[in-house]
């Protein structure tokens, strides 16, 4: 009895309790994406993209088939094996190569494929003039578009045109008082070996450090794109602490400051800003001969940046994220534009190794009062979620929860400002929201980090990238509907390992029998698939002070 | 010393043949042997083998050996037989045709030694004896006093055997008489032959004379001949019929023409006479004799890997068939007017099976071929699983697969033709007409046999496979056949007959007809059903293998199937739990079921989900009515509700025109009928239905798919032979006609017949009668009369091996048999008399 079961929809089920599970995971990881990692059986998916990435990494179809046959508990359907072999065979028929005479060319040893591609409607305008029978010119700026479009029509191009090295700039890690963790090293190295790609690590596992390590490996000028200004400062602080870079070498490019230095940190917001339909800050990409572009929280990459990235195909690109799920379903674009997934670690594995704090997720169910129920039932559909999510009944429960964790640092997270203000007043805690000035935000966060503030009420501005190491409890009162990654990112705020090793607690306060509960179920899906099983308790138990 | 077995058959007279009777293989004294007499001399076993190998000869069973011989040498029958020959057999046959042509001047027939030499082999060298034995067995070749002769029609069917031209005699006969005479006069002025044709033919048959003639020609002429020796034996020249003599010959062509080394066969074609070509070839008939098929080349994998992959596919197919038929039992597919299946239904089937349409088409056709799918009888009917499907489901998986595989092997339908257009431009529908290809089963077997002949685990390249198959059946090669072969390969892969392109281990025994063995090997590969699942916190349950039927059914009710394959992944959602509750399961039933069968503790979130749905499920329940009555007259319902006799029905008046009843519809209708009302049951909509929809089944198809129409099995073939023998005996029996008065008084003829037959009955003799049967056909019978009276003779009809009553007035003639009275046991085998 082996540990792997191959499904006809090309998912692979891995029984994690099995003695061969580790070996099997290593064997299938090159060509299958980890899709779900709950307690007992992990699900991997064999996608064309994953198979092509495996080919790009030097694996061939025989190895893939062999791994499946070796570990599969049951006979593997022949048609599936054939399909895998055929899919992998499509890779490399087309190659993007640098040509001394014509610059970038798309060449093929299989003339029929090239003919098909040249005639494909989706590639219209991307290809230049024909060079002989087996090649066609490509404008360098279309390199990204073309690769993406070729993926979509099922003829992935092997990109042999290489990367520009960019302007060299020595960067080294300054491992004084800390050490690069093994997985961080592995992630940075496998990224560097692959040239471009995405590293997926849970919140709190130190993605910034992976970025720093990648910069050290690249040893070149670097452009870092992050989500917001607070995050810009955090990156800057981290880089100063972790690397040999000095203040003068790091520039900030945000709404208020426009510095361009060997390492420049910019926000997505400023990059995506337009005046009269024109992106005004595009020149940043041209400002220096960047050797590396880092995309923090790459799952948030806005659409305009997608397009700009397509023009940056010759530069090394590193995407960092914890939750590569997009409710808009554009995960595939991230892979094709930034690069394939280079490293991925299940959250629970990280937790077991102590790199992130263990977390206990609890869904607290609150009953709406009689009058609220009536109001809810008659509310307009578009107002319903807002109504039940910001129910007054939640306030008492939140207060009870905060009191219960009086000794800990508690974040109360929500989406609706009225509700947050009300909670702030009720808990006597400061509220950070969109209109809070950056300076004030940083002051409050610093106070919270220092332990001067025990409770902080935050809106979704604190969903990402805010590093609050000692926060041990998060109470979520409302969210952006059914967003899975928001839920995971919010849990991520409390996942930094605590100095005393205590476990983190994440509460989701949910109104029973309303859309709030339905959305909650959807929001929890990503975490449930990462093995975080929610417990459900009743608000009455919380209020009664029972053990939870 | 090795003596090939076929030599026995060639020995003209066997020692144990009685001297006064013609031995097998020869005709009655004096007459030269014929094909018919040779055939008559074959043993019963050999004839049975002939009928098995050429089943078309036995449809219908021929009346006697003469008829069998005629049929065996009929053009179409021989063509069919040729199609089954492999390349080597065909070469041997061509050699026999080339050398044994009775228009060659030499003694008629090919000598075995000469034949072997022509094939560059020793007479006893394998596989020549076996192949000759087979050709004799197929009655394509027969023996005449130790020499091999082809059946006549082969001259026509193989016009240029071994790429040789016709014998000189044929060419000469077609020439103007004057021209032949000139040739004869020029080349052999002092011949003894009467006709000039013979004179030249005999001349060309003499190797010394041919060498001599060749010696007289120039090098250019000889080069010309060399170009034609190995065929094609024809050349084009202007004015082929020109008049030339050895003296006037001016060009190389004329040199040859004047010496009859080339003969005109048209106004501008010259043909190399067979005798000359044979002489020039100097012995061998073929440049290359291909005694064995080309080796099958391709990837070789361990056979276990191949078998495992194939078994995986086989398991997938089983699951697909189940999913298809379950889907169609819930929501049947419509039967098109032409009896087929619509494209939309096929698409739905493909979705249900989670596969593409081509695969779906094959599975639909295979399920139908296996008798699992049928139509109901109604007009505008539906495709439904048959009752056989229910039985099939109970079988262990290996048996289920074998049933599908065998059905596929024998099916004359090709699923991949579905969706194509016929000559008239009509779309051929799946399960409809137009998909039949009688050659398909043969193509499938050929492909599988070829794979079986390769080293285990070999996945031959398509070109290698087609070369191999071309060797096996050189006369069958055609685009249609190539398509069938390609389809067979593709279908075999989809059905799990092959894995990774090579033959699955469990198919080997199946090809030998050993189903038990196949089932044993396959059973070891297929997963065994489990009775547990793993329930996880992300609201999924994983069944790490196929589940026992009961559990699978219940789980499919409580949870949605998310992915299938070796395992099944179920996802619990509000809808799925509600579905279970709708089907009458309680909250406790569901949690009990999961607790009992889950290896892991149930996650709390799942318990909450079930409880939540359960709590809400009841909220809108309005009552427990399970049937209702509608009526446009409130008064009638008033009356019913008030009737004391209906109290047990639990009638509740919901509206003036609607009454709900607690009892089920069937009971309600039945009871109301007893009370003298005439309710009409109303279908589905609106009624609160607890329980799953009724599962529907088609009646079994009228006739199970007919197995291939060949005469199968030795028994059957032997029976056919017995019938032929009996007919032959009647037709050829030596008989002494009994004179019957033709113009005597009325009735005297019948009386005379009766006399003879009564006498025969008394003496226990057999007599021959001519008889006009009820259809007016004149037939002959050998009968043993037992009783003769009232214008009828009751007799044992030895021809048909049954007792019959013959009307005396229909008997046209009577003859005594040339027997010494008394019935005689016919020898089991051997010659007829």
Mean pLDDT of chain B: 81
CATH topology-level name of the largest domain in chain A: Rossmann fold
Number of strands of chain A: 25
Content of β-strand of chain B: 5-15%
How far apart the termini of chain A lie comes to 40 Å
Please report the number of helical segments of chain A: 23
Please report the two chains with the greatest interface, counting residues with C-beta closer than 8 angstroms to the partner's C-beta: A-B, 37 and 45 residues
Beta fraction of chain A: 15-25%
What does this protein look like?
- The complex is a heterodimer of chains A (548) and B (833).
- Chain A is α/β, with parallel strands linked by helices and 548 residues long.
- Chain A folds into 4 domains: 4-90, no CATH class; 94-159, no CATH class; 182-351, Rossmann fold (3-Layer(aba) Sandwich); 357-544, P-loop containing nucleotide triphosphate hydrolases (Rossmann fold), CATH 3.40.50.
- Chain A has 23 helices and 25 strands.
- Chain A has a 7-stranded parallel sheet with strand order 12-13-11-16-17-10-18, sandwiched between helices.
- In chain A, helix 3 runs antiparallel to helix 4 (78-89).
- The radius of gyration of chain A is 25 Å and the shape is globular.
- By secondary structure, chain B is an alpha+beta fold.
- Helix content of chain B is 44%, strand content 12%.
- In chain B, a hairpin with a 2-residue loop joins strand 22 (778-789) and strand 23.
- Chain B is extended, with a radius of gyration of 39 Å.
- The model of chain B is unreliable at 1-27, 687-692, 704-711 and 820-833 (pLDDT under 50).
- At the A-B interface, strand 2, helix 4 and helix 22 of A face helix 17, strand 11 and helix 30 of B.
- Chain A: Belongs to the helicase family. RAD25/XPB subfamily.
């Amino acid at each position: 009895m082996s540990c792997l079961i191959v499904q006809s929809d090309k998912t692979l089920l891995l029984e994690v309790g099995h003695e061969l599970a580790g070996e099997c995971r290593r064997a299938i990881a090159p060509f299958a994406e980890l899709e779900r990692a709950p307690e007992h059986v992990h699900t991997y998916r064999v996608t064309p993209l994953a198979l092509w990435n495996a080919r790009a990494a030097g694996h061939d179809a025989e190895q893939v088939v062999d791994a499946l046959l070796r570990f599969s508990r049951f006979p593997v359907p022949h048609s599936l094996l054939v399909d895998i072999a055929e899919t992998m065979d499509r890779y490399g028929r087309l190659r993007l190569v640098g040509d001394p005479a014509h610059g970038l060319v798309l060449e093929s040893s299989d003339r029929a494929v090239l003919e098909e591609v040249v005639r494909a409607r989706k590639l219209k305008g991307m290809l230049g003039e024909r060079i002989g029978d087996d090649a066609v010119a490509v404008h360098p700026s279309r390199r990204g578009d073309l690769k993406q479009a070729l993926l979509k029509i099922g003829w992935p191009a092997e990109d042999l045109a290489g990367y520009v090295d960019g302007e060299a700039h020595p960067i080294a890690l300054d491992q004084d008082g800390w050490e690069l963790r093994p997985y961080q090293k592995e992630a940075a190295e496998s990224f560097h070996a692959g040239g471009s790609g995405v590293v997926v690590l849970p919140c709190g596992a130190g993605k910034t450090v992976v970025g720093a390590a990648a910069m050290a490996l690249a040893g070149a000028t670097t452009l870092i794109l992050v989500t917001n200004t607070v995050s810009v400062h955090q990156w800057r602080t981290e880089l100063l602490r972790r690397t040999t870079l000095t203040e003068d070498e790091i520039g900030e490019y945000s709404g208020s400051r426009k510095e361009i230095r060997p390492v420049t940190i910019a926000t997505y917001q400023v990059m995506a800003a337009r005046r009269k339909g024109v992106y005004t800050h595009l020149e940043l990409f041209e400002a220096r001969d960047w050797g590396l572009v880092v995309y923090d929280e790459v799952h948030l990459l806005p659409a305009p940046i997608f397009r700009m990235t397509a023009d940056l195909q010759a530069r090394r690109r590193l995407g960092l994220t914890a939750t590569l799920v997009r409710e808009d379903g554009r995960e595939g674009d991230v892979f094709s534009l930034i690069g394939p997934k280079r490293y991925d670690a299940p959250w629970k594995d990280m937790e077991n190794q102590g790199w992130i704090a263990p977390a206990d997720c609890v869904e607290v169910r609150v009953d709406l009062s009689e009058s609220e129920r009536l109001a809810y039932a008659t509310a307009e559909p578009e107002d319903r979620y807002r109504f039940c999510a910001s129910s007054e009944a939640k306030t008492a429960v939140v207060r009870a929860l905060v009191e219960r964790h009086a000794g800990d640092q508690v974040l109360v997270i929500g989406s609706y400002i009225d509700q947050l203000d009300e909670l702030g007043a009720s808990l006597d805690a400061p509220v950070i929201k969109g209109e809070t000035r950056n300076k004030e935000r940083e002051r409050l966060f610093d106070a919270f980090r220092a332990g001067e503030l025990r409770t902080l009420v935050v809106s979704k501005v604190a969903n990402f990238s805010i590093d609050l190491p000692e926060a041990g409890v998060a109470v979520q009162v409302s969210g952006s509907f059914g967003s899975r990654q928001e839920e995971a990112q919010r849990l991520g705020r409390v996942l930094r390992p605590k100095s005393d090793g205590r476990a983190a607690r994440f509460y989701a306060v949910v109104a029973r029998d309303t859309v709030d509960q339905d959305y909650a179920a959807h929001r929890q899906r990503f975490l449930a698939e990462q093995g975080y099983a929610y417990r459900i308790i009743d608000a009455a138990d919380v209020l009664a002070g029972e053990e939870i | 010393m090795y003596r090939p077995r076929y030599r026995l058959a060639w020995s003209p007279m066997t020692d144990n043949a009685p001297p006064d009777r013609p031995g097998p293989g020869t005709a009655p004294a004096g007459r030269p042997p014929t094909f018919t007499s040779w055939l008559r001399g074959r043993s019963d076993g050999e004839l049975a083998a002939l009928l098995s190998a050429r089943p078309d000869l036995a449809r219908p069973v021929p009346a006697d050996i003469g008829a069998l011989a005629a049929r065996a040498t009929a053009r179409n029958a021989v063509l069919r037989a040729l199609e089954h020959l492999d390349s080597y057999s065909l070469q041997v046959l061509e050699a026999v045709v080339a050398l044994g042509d009775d228009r060659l001047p030499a003694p008629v027939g090919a000598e075995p030694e000469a034949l072997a030499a022509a094939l560059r082999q020793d007479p006893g060298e394998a596989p020549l004896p076996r192949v000759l034995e087979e050709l004799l067995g197929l009655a394509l070749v027969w023996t005449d006093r130790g020499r091999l002769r082809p059946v006549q029609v082969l001259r026509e069917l193989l016009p240029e055997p071994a790429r040789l031209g016709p014998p000189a005699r044929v060419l000469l006969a077609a020439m103007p008489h004057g021209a032949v005479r000139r040739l004869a006069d020029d080349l052999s002025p002092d011949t003894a032959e009467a006709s000039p044709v013979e004179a030249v033919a005999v001349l060309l048959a003499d190797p010394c004379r041919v060498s001599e003639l060749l010696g007289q020609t120039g090098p250019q002429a000889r080069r010309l001949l060399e170009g034609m020796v190995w065929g094609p034996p024809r050349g084009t020249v202007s004015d082929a019929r020109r008049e030339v003599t050895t003296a006037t010959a001016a060009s190389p062509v004329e040199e040859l023409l004047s010496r009859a080394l080339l003969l005109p066969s048209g106004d501008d074609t010259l043909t190399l006479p067979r005798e000359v070509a044979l002489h020039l070839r100097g012995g061998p008939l073929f440049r290359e004799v291909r005694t064995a098929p080309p080796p099958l080349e391709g990837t070789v994998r361990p056979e276990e890997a191949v078998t495992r992959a194939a078994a995986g596919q086989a398991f997938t197919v089983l699951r697909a068939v189940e999913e298809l038929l379950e889907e169609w039992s819930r929501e049947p597919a419509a039967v098109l007017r032409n009896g087929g299946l619509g494209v939309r239904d096929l698409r739905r089937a493909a979705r249900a099976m989670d596969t593409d349409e081509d695969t779906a088409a094959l599975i639909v056709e295979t399920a139908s071929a296996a008798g699992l799918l049928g139509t109901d009888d109604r007009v505008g009917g539906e495709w439904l699983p048959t009752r056989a499907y229910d039985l099939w489901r109970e079988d262990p998986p290996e048996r289920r697969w074998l049933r599908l595989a065998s059905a596929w092997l024998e099916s004359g339908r090709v699923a991949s033709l579905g969706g194509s257009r016929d000559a008239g431009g009509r779309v051929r529908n799946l399960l409809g007409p137009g998909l039949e290809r009688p050659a398909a089963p043969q193509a499938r077997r050929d492909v599988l046999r070829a794979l079986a002949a390769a080293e285990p685990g070999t996945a031959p390249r398509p070109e290698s496979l087609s070369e191999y198959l071309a060797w096996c059946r050189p006369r069958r090669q055609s685009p249609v056949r190539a398509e069938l072969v390609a389809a067979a390969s593709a279908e075999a892969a989809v059905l799990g007959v092959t894995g990774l392109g090579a033959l699955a281990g469990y198919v080997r025994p199946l090809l030998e007809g050993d189903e038990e063995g196949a089932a044993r090997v396959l059973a070891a590969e297929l997963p065994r059903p489990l009775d547990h699942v793993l329930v996880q916190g992300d609201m999924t349950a994983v069944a790490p293998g196929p589940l026992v039927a009961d559990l699978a059914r219940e789980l499919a009710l409580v949870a949605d199937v998310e992915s299938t394959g070796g395992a099944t992944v179920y996802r619990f959602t509000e809808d799925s739990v509600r579905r279970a509750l709708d089907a009458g399961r309680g909250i406790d039933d569901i949690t009990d079921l999961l607790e009992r069968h889950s290896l892991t503790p149930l996650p709390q979130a799942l318990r909450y989900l079930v409880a939540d749905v359960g709590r809400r499920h009841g909220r809108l329940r309005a009552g427990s009515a399970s049937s209702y009555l509608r009526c446009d007259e409130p008064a009638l319902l008033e009356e019913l509700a008030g009737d004391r006799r209906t109290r047990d029905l639990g009638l509740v008046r919901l509206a003036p025109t609607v009454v709900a009843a607690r009892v089920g519809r069937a009971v309600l209708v039945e009871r109301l009928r007893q009370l003298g009302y005439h309710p009409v049951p109303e279908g589905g909509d609106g009624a609160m239905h607890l329980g799953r929809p009724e599962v529907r089944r088609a009646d079994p198809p009228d006739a199970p798919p007919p197995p291939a129409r060949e005469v199968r099995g030795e028994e059957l073939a032997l029976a056919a032979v017995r019938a032929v023998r009996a007919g032959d005996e009647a037709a050829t029996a030596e008989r002494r006609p009994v004179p019957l008065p033709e113009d005597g008084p009325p009735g005297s003829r019948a009386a005379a017949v009766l006399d003879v037959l009564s006498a025969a009955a008394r003496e226990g003799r057999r007599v021959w009668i001519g008889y006009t049967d009820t259809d007016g056909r004149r037939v002959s019978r050998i009968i043993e009369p037992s009783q003769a009276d009232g214008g009828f003779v009751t007799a044992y009809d030895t021809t048909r091996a049954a007792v019959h009553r013959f009307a005396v007035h229909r008997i046209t003639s009577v003859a005594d048999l040339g027997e010494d009275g008394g019935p005689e046991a016919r020898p089991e085998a051997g010659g007829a008399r």
